[in-house]
Design brief:
This protein is mostly helical. It is built from nine helices and no strands. α1 crosses α6 and α6 crosses α7. The longest helix is centred in the last third of the chain and has 24 residues.
């Protein structure tokens, strides 16, 4: 019988290492005052190595968003169960907030910095829209054409609105976040029905 080869340790994703380092630093201090040199040092890289992977801090945050997207989508390999669109969206968005809980302190620092810097906030919008497009896709809600674009835009606005509640929600079960998300999705559904959307 052939000898079984020992399993090799999984390779560390260098981009994920940088993202983890950035979130860790953000949890310790003001994101606005954290430089690329600080992130490179925390990740154990030279500035040259970091620049080969990322264009800047905003690019690192985009990568973080993609990591969260992948982690959330991985929970629904067969799609989201249920026939009601609102319930499916609620389920996936709460799964996203649950994933964000792992990085709560760092994200709070980053969001506060974005609110104080209009440029950073604007730069982050396409990333948010991309994440919400994936959210709609996994919920089997059409994102094509003008209506699809409007759905992405509306869900992005809802997500950014709920982020404020999430930041203030210190409960273990995110009860406040769930309540606000439920109410907001209900209102959005009513508006969509009224407009024939």
């Amino acid at each position: 019988m052939p000898t079984k080869r020992p399993k090799s340790a999984p390779k560390t994703d260098p981009r994920r290492t940088v993202v983890t380092a950035a979130i860790k630093l953000a949890a310790k201090g003001d994101w606005a005052n954290i430089g690329l040199k600080d992130i490179a040092k925390e990740a154990g890289l030279s500035l040259a190595d970091l620049s080969a992977q990322f264009a800047g801090k905003e690019d690192i945050l985009v990568a973080y968003g993609r990591i969260v997207d992948a982690d959330v989508l991985a929970q629904y390999p067969n799609g989201v169960p249920g026939t009601d669109e609102k319930d499916r969206l609620f389920d996936v968005l709460m799964a996203r907030f649950d994933r964000l809980q792992d990085d709560r302190a760092g994200l709070t620092s980053i969001i506060k910095a974005a609110c104080a810097d209009p440029k950073q906030a604007i730069i982050s919008l396409p990333g948010v829209a991309g994440s919400m497009s994936w959210t709609l896709e996994v919920c089997d809600i059409d994102t094509q054409g003008t209506r699809g674009a409007l759905r992405v835009l509306i869900l992005s606005a809802i997500y950014l609105w709920i982020l404020r509640s999430w930041m203030d929600d210190d409960s273990a079960d995110m009860a406040k976040t769930m309540a606000v998300l439920d109410r907001t999705l209900n209102r959005a559904g009513q508006w969509a029905e009224t407009l024939g959307f």
